[in-house]
Specification:
Length: 153
């Protein structure tokens, strides 16, 4: 099942965790208790999270989970478009839950690292249509604007 790019915002529908689990099943992936809890953790606690912070939270319930398992799970979820991977200047890779049909981009301060969400995508639908016409499957994309926030100017 190909992930489709959409500029629209999420609408009323299945619960975000349930929708993510449906997507995993549609891709032929197993629903493990660890995967389910990682998805639920990220969906409930919006914002950016490092792999280590996810690991520390999930390890409370799944004592035998490894950091490597968390990294692999986060990578799998990002490859399916369920998580955004955010590489902010000078910071570890961060992950953010993406509800179906909704994505956003970031403006990042080069001085303090603070970021703010941009609810606009500068890439037109035609861009993604052209990629699909050339048989390129887009699962995710990122757009970050770097500069200085009001406090750091």
């Amino acid at each position: 099942m190909a992930a489709r790019h959409s500029h629209s915002h999420a609408s009323a529908g299945p619960h975000p965790v349930e929708a993510a689990l449906v997507r995993l099943k549609a891709e032929g992936l197993r629903i493990t208790p660890q995967r389910e809890d990682i998805i639920a953790y990220l969906a409930k606690r919006r914002g950016r999270h490092s792999a280590r912070s996810v690991f520390e939270a999930i390890r409370k319930k799944h004592r035998n989970i490894s950091l490597d398992t968390v990294y692999r799970t986060l990578s799998t979820l990002a490859n399916l478009g369920l998580l955004a991977q955010i590489k902010l200047h000078g910071a570890d890779l961060q992950y953010e839950f993406q509800e179906a049909g909704h994505h956003h981009h970031h403006a990042v301060c080069l001085s303090c690292g603070q970021s703010s969400c941009l609810n606009v995508c500068p890439l037109p639908d035609k861009f993604f249509e052209d990629l699909e016409a050339n048989e390129f499957r887009v699962v995710s994309h990122a757009f970050e604007v770097y500069g200085y926030c009001a406090k750091c100017r």
